[in-house]
Amino acid sequence: xxxxxxxxxxxxxxxxxxxxxxxxxxxxxxxxxxxxxxxxxxxxxxxxxxxxxxxxxxxxxxxxxxxxxxxxxxxxxxxxxxxxxxxxxxxxxxxxxxxxxxxxxxxxxxxxxxxxxxxxxxxxxxxxxxxxxxxxxxxxxxxxxxxxxxxxxxxxxxxxxxxxxxxxxxxxxxxxxxxxxxxxxxxxxxxxxxxxxxxxxxxxxxxxxxxxxxxxxxxxxxxxxxxxxxxxxxxxxxxxxxxxxxxxxxxxxxxxxxxxxxxxxxxxxxxxxxxxxxxxxxxxxxxxxxxxxxxxxxxxxxxxxxxxxxxxxxxxxxxxxxxxxxxxxxxxxxxxxxxxxxxxxxxxxxxxxxxxxxxxxxxxxxxxxxx
Amino acid sequence: xxxxxxxxxxxxxxxxxxxxxxxxxxxxxxxxxxxxxxxxxxxxxxxxxxxxxxxxxxxxxxxxxxxxxxxxxxxxxxxxxxxxxxxxxxxxxxxxxxxxxxxxxxxxxxxxxxxxxxxxxxxxxxxxxxxxxxxxxxxxxxxxxxxxxxxxxxxxxxxxxxxxxxxxxxxxxxxxxxxxxxxxxxxxxxxxxxxxxxxxxxxxxxxxxxxxxxxxxxxxxxxxxxxxxxxxxxxxxxxxxxxxxxxxxxxxxxxxxxxxxxxxxxxxxxxxxxxxxxxxxxxxxxxxxxxxxxxxxxxxxxxxxxxxxxxxxxxxxxxxxxx
Lengths: 371, 323
Description:
CATH architecture of chain B: Orthogonal Bundle
CATH topology of the largest domain in chain A: ABC transporter involved in vitamin B12 uptake, BtuC
Structural class of chain B: mainly alpha
Radius of gyration of chain A: 23 Å
Strand content of chain A: under 5%
CATH topology of chain B: ABC transporter involved in vitamin B12 uptake, BtuC
Largest interface: A-B, 53 and 57 residues
Shape of chain A: globular
CATH architecture of the largest domain in chain A: Orthogonal Bundle
Number of helices of chain A: 13
Distance between the termini of chain B: 60 Å
Distance between the termini of chain A: 41 Å
Shape of chain B: globular
CATH class of chain B: Mainly Alpha
Largest sheet of chain B: none
Helix content of chain A: over 70%
Strand content of chain B: under 5%
Oligomer: heterodimer
């Protein structure tokens, strides 16, 4: 019995807790490191002073009143989807299908605009479109939820496939509604009558988008935190067996939650079509259904934190588009920068939840020094 | 008859792209890692191969096809492996969430690929101008002894390479000790760990090798499917997600993925060969591969046959001290 216990050079232990401010500091350090890495990449590619480039990004996102409003509009869109996903994710239901739920909501909205435009007053049409898009999104969300609840079908893969069914469905309707003929786009719907467009409030075209999404932010925050149903969601998310033991009808909770999640994503489609682009295409969702997953996850399902993260991501996107046009790169620079920054933020979560203990001294290691 | 043959050929070419993607993902998922970064990895593999060949063809006075081919392969494998390594480091060492990391990798990969692809197009003189004719030609050459053998003439060597890889992967997973260990890691990492299998090493290796294989799908797409050019049209992303679908369709079995990939290819191109379709109804036909996958997913979960299930710990992180 004389084997030696070899102590590893470094081992990882879970932290009990970390003060909130230190958690955010860690994330901030991750973000700064990410910006440094991006600066190096940008410099290697365009040989320009990265600080100037970041300045140009700021201009791109906030350089004029119009740009500020566009940035706000897109932030609201991303936030809305994130809010929709939050309830599903809290239940540990991986709804990767936001993309599809947005698109069916968008199709429903566009259909209302095309077929009902001019037959009823604007406010009524908006209410109808709101309801129809929510129902469409809910249906798209409930299909995988039903099979998950009934047979345990893998929801990550199911919702992912539903996206592509929705994309093809969108292509179908785009070809059906195309205008002018042969263009393979729907074009701006009701260009002259503006039937079904969000009306300008206080002369601000996108204020209604902000109002709707902010209302949803508050409602979902309260719903998840303080309602009985919100509590059921977190119990099912933590442990399905516990939920069953204390008498929660797990199947019903799964289906109900996905109905809500899908409905909010459908509403995001309504906002995208009626409140922003006034048209429908396969890029109406434009990958935002996927980006929002990251928003919801990083915010730990807190809808107010999501505002911050959504704003950061949209800022990056707008900024990178500006760099792209100013320095003759293409728009995809924004995707690359977003990717790098997200990698770092994801990595920094580790230093919030775990700490490293080096051999010899079991001293507490400060979190977030390296990523 | 000629129609059926040309459909078959289209299916074989299309299927090969997603077969590579799916084979890599099967290896990865067998280790319990659900890598949703497949499209991103295929993007990385495709653009790196193209960049390597482009650089070589514009540097060399008279480019040698074989050398170009080897350079493209090496660049592609290196870039795709790097993508897998980023994913592995974040999910295995830093225990980040797998779904979120994978999706980020997809965003990153498509950003990098389209950024450089667009740039190379510009360097070559305009949209769609980049061309690596020599290297791409080498990828598309029919094997010498198959010239004029009906449907097989006109298929590059990568088609056969994919099939061989699938057979090797199947043998490895089902007939070797290491394959057994890998499956154990994916099914129940705690048990594998207790049995003396290094969970971390298996996960890292499976994910990186899987990424390299998936990346070949991107390379094949660039070199053969679109004939050595580049287009920022999201084509690789669509095929990447189909590869993820194929993994489910094949129920995590490499040999099933072979015919599954060709079936997907045939389903995808079917609309082209059915007379009387309008442009809108064609789009509905392109849904078929996804709908078939959904049906398979549902049926598999309903029948609950053990050998058809996903690896039990798929998507879950493993932390030894957390039980």
